[in-house]
């Protein structure tokens, strides 16, 4: 059909309307996926053709992973149809998807260290002899054959833990191909690979194309996509906003599709007079996660930190908070050198971190609201080593009122609250420590639009009260709308520091993806 | 949840009362104040150990070495008393607590510094501490005639109509309640078990918290070592064999979540009393020791099922709340 989706005004007609070619191997029509409060996919249609690679492009959270999960039978879509060779199919389970010929190679592959290579490849569908016994000979032979097809000489009988990362990756690919798959999904397969390994992988992909497999390739790296893919689909906010032939589409057009045009002015930024430097980070390095990070943070300033997943943003922030430790570098807080060895040091110094995964990192669900709120502030609410429940309750009441926390009583366990109210407890808990610097990691992840506006309003309010804020976010509109300056990270390095005046979606995406 | 917990403690009180009343119909005199005081006195050591165990479990750990610790410390102080009858009792008690704490500190150190799972550490030290008791004694018993009367009689001294052993248990219950609800350590213990990651982010050193929980459990085991040896007037290697399981059982029956972070002192005490009542009643009404073990076992499994259901119900409430919010949003 044509290259234009029916998604309203935001559609990008790209290139020529591709003429009808062969029937697509796989077609998804009008797929929607609704999670409570969030529409992760909204009427998405894509088609995959035999012997071709289709690049799936989009920001973090655009809906790519959701699509993959629907295709592999992990989620069932709320609406829409899937056709394989023109026949409608329904995947009730992951096994159904495998039986239909869909296989996926995931970013972080799930393999078993203690099992042999062949066992890993055939786990769940091992060749059997009589009485249901595993046919080891056949299994090892088939594994060898599969690995040969991938130009690899890995011995199928050795245990997985003795292999390098790249070799494990090959095993994962072999596993994906061990089922009779015609549709192969590769979800950021190059993320952990070196250039040479990527070249090897691409040779394998070319081989798969020749065998007539339809490939859906997800990557953030444009140079790779142009190298390997014929077609592309761009997702934004759960919608397919454009597709076409990659060779006919310049990169900046795709970047514009990714970010959209309507990102300005959703977040009315409150103008705050920015004061003196509060925090200076100099040459922060970490053995594995990031290198040479330096920046200043001023009073009342909101510093956005943008980058792709895995760029080292959270790791940097965790180091500032003492959860992990930099291998070198200096930290200066209000002119004094500080050395932060633990979160306790950070809290004492006035740096707090509101983590991304609030459930996992933020709250002890069985404990009452007021005890959760007072947990980092116990030193202030206690008297001569004894806890004072009255002080704790007073503290909790103050921030509960300020944040408009809805709860039957402050003594009920946090676990009984709704998600939004739990979030308020987390924020209240950190504000109660009276910090100077507050680090917010994905502050609006997974909450609905209405609550987002409230959170943004609140962040601006904090800044106007003189707090310095570091806001890590993968959402461009949020970064563009809220930040006074933006630090962009790419693969653990500073890819740029941009002032508000020079902020634009294209600039940030280019810096984050490394396409100057 | 808290309502449920409170409810649960009341429930335990009710069940224990019904059990006592039921046994009283079969064995007249079972429910007399004197007999009930006896049962409490009999259960005192279990209560003390269960409170230590509970603290450890709150931090998402487990201490399987308490009974072995008890056996070693009991043996050590009994031999000291036999060898040097002139040593003051106070010194021996302090020594027992100190040795116990030191053994607990070994557990705590291995868990904290070497990051070995607590169940593995204490399974190892369980055998080691028993072995140490054997090495120390050469397998010999210390019998009542070898120990000094002061050493043996102290727990039996009657104060206000109750033996000192019961009073010691009561004092420790009060101290533990204060420690767990009124100090930063107690709060840290609940937080470390309730959500270890959140605790780290809140500036709590969970390793250190676990370490001190083990030291506390060890110190209480040490004290219990002295109390046990003096009460039963004999010390040998196999003293209190398998008793660590009773302490875990008492905690679990009392509603302390084996996953950590949930539980109360009252719960642990009631859990211990529940076991105490069963242990005392079953022989009275003529049930064989083997059936007793089976009955205790069934009760423990039921308690675990009950706990699991209670915790799951909390989860459902969250989901429903979330759903409700989204509908209204």
Tell me about this structure.
- The complex is a heterodimer of chains A (516) and B (329).
- Chain A is of the alpha/beta class and 516 residues long.
- Chain A is 33% helix and 23% strand.
- Chain A has 18 helices and 20 strands.
- In chain A, the strands form four sheets. In chain A, strands 6-7-8-3-9-10 form a six-stranded mixed sheet, with helices on both faces. In chain A, strands 16-17-18-13-19-20 form a six-stranded mixed sheet, sandwiched between helices.
- In chain A, α8 (251-259) crosses α18 and α14 (389-402) crosses α15.
- Residues 1-20 of chain A have low confidence and may be disordered.
- With 329 residues, chain B is mainly α.
- In chain B, strands 1-2 form a two-stranded antiparallel ribbon.
- Chain B is globular, with a radius of gyration of 21 Å.
- Chain B: It is found in: Cell membrane.
- Chain B: Keywords: Cell membrane, Membrane, Transmembrane, Transmembrane helix.
- Chain B: It comes from Neorhizobium huautlense.
- CATH topology group of chain B: ABC transporter involved in vitamin B12 uptake, BtuC
Question: How many distinct beta strands of chain A?
Answer: 20
Domain unit count of chain B: 1
Structural class of chain B: mainly alpha
The chain-level mean pLDDT of chain A equals 83
CATH second-level architecture of chain B: Orthogonal Bundle
Distance between the termini of chain A: 34 Å
Strand order of the largest sheet of chain B: 1-2
Unreliable stretches covering 5 or more consecutive residues of chain B: 313-329
């Amino acid at each position: 059909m044509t290259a234009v989706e029916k998604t309203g005004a935001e559609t990008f007609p790209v290139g020529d309307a591709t003429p009808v070619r062969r029937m697509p191997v796989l077609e998804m029509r009008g797929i929607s996926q609704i999670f409570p409060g969030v529409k992760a996919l909204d009427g998405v249609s894509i088609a995959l053709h035999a012997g071709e690679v289709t690049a799936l492009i989009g920001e973090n959270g655009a809906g790519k992973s959701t699509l993959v999960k629907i295709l592999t039978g992990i989620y069932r879509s709320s609406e829409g149809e899937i056709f394989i060779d023109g026949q409608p199919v329904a995947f009730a389970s992951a096994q159904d998807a495998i039986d239909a010929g869909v296989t996926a190679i995931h970013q972080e592959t799930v393999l078993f260290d203690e099992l042999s290579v062949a066992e890993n490849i055939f786990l769940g569908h091992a060749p059997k002899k009589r009485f249901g016994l595993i046919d080891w000979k056949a299994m090892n032979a088939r594994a060898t054959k599969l690995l040969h097809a991938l130009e690899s000489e890995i011995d199928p009988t050795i245990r997985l833990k003795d292999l390098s990362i790249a070799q494990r990756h090959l095993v994962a690919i072999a596993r994906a191909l061990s089922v009779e798959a015609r549709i192969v999904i590769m979800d950021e397969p190059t993320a952990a690979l070196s250039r040479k390994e990527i070249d090897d992988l691409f040779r394998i992909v070319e081989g798969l194309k020749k065998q007539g497999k339809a490939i859906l390739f997800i990557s953030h790296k444009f140079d790779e996509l142009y190298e390997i893919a014929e077609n592309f689909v761009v997702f934004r906010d759960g919608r397919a906003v454009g597709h076409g032939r990659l060779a006919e589409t310049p990169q900046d057009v795709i970047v514009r599709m990714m970010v959209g045009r309507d990102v300005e002015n959703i977040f009315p930024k409150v103008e705050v007079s920015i004061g003196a430097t509060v925090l200076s980070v100099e040459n922060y390095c970490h053995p594995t996660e990031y290198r040479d990070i330096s920046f200043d943070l001023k009073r009342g300033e909101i510093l956005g930190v943008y980058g792709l997943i895995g760029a080292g943003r959270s790791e940097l922030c965790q180091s500032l908070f003492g959860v992990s430790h930099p291998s070198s570098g200096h930290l200066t807080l209000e002119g004094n050198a500080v050395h932060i060895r633990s979160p306790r040091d950070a809290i004492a110094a006035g740096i707090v971190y509101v983590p991304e995964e609030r459930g996992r990192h933020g709250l002890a669900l069985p404990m009452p609201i007021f005890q959760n709120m007072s947990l980092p502030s116990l030193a202030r609410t206690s008297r001569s080593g004894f806890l004072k429940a009255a002080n704790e309750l007073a503290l909790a009441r103050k921030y509960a009122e300020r944040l408009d926390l809805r709860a039957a009583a402050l003594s009920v366990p946090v676990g009984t609250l709704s998600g939004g109210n739990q979030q308020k407890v987390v924020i209240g808990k950190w504000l109660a420590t009276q910090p100077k610097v507050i680090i917010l990691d994905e502050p609006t992840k997974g909450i609905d639009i209405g609550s987002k506006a409230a959170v943004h309003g609140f962040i601006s309010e904090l800044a106007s009260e003189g707090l310095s804020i570091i806001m890590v976010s993968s959402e461009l509109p949020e970064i563009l709308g809220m930040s006074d300056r933006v630090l962009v990270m790419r693969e653990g390095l500073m890819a740029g520091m941009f002032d508000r005046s020079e902020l634009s979606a294209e600039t940030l995406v280019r810096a984050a993806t490394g396409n100057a | 949840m808290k309502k449920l917990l409170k409810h649960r403690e009341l429930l335990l009180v009710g069940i224990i009362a019904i059990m006592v009343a039921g046994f009283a119909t079969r064995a007249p005199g079972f429910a007399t104040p004197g007999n009930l005081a006896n049962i409490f006195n009999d259960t005192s050591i279990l209560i003390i150990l269960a409170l230590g165990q509970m603290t450890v479990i709150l931090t998402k750990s487990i201490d399987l070495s308490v009974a072995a610790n008890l056996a070693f410390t009991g043996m050590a102080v009994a031999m000291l008393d036999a060898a040097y009858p002139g040593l003051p009792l106070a010194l021996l008690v302090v020594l027992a607590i100190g040795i116990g704490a030191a053994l607990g500190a070994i557990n705590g150190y291995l868990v904290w510094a070497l990051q070995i799972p607590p169940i593995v550490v204490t399974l190892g030290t369980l055998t080691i501490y028993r072995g140490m008791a054997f090495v120390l004694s050469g397998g010999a018993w210390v019998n009542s005639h070898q120990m000094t009367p002061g050493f043996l009689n102290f727990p039996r001294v009657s104060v206000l109509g109750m033996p000192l052993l019961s009073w010691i248990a009561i004092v420790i219950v009060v101290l533990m309640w204060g420690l767990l609800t009124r100090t930063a350590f107690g709060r840290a213990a609940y937080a470390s078990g309730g959500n270890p990651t959140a605790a780290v982010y809140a500036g709590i050193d969970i390793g250190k918290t676990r370490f001190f929980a083990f030291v506390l459990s060890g110190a209480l085991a040490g004290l219990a070592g002295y109390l046990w040896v003096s009460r039963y007037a004999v010390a040998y290697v196999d003293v209190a064999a398998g008793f660590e399981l009773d302490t875990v059982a008492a905690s679990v029956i009392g509603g302390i979540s084996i996953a950590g972070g949930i539980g109360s002192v009252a719960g642990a005490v009631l859990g211990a009393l529940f076991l105490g009542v069963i242990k005392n009643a079953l022989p009275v009404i003529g049930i064989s020791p083997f059936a007793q073990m089976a009955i205790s076992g069934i009760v423990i499994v039921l308690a675990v099922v009950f706990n699991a259901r209670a915790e799951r119900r909390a989860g459902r409430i969250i989901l429903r709340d979330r759903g409700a919010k989204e509908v209204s949003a």
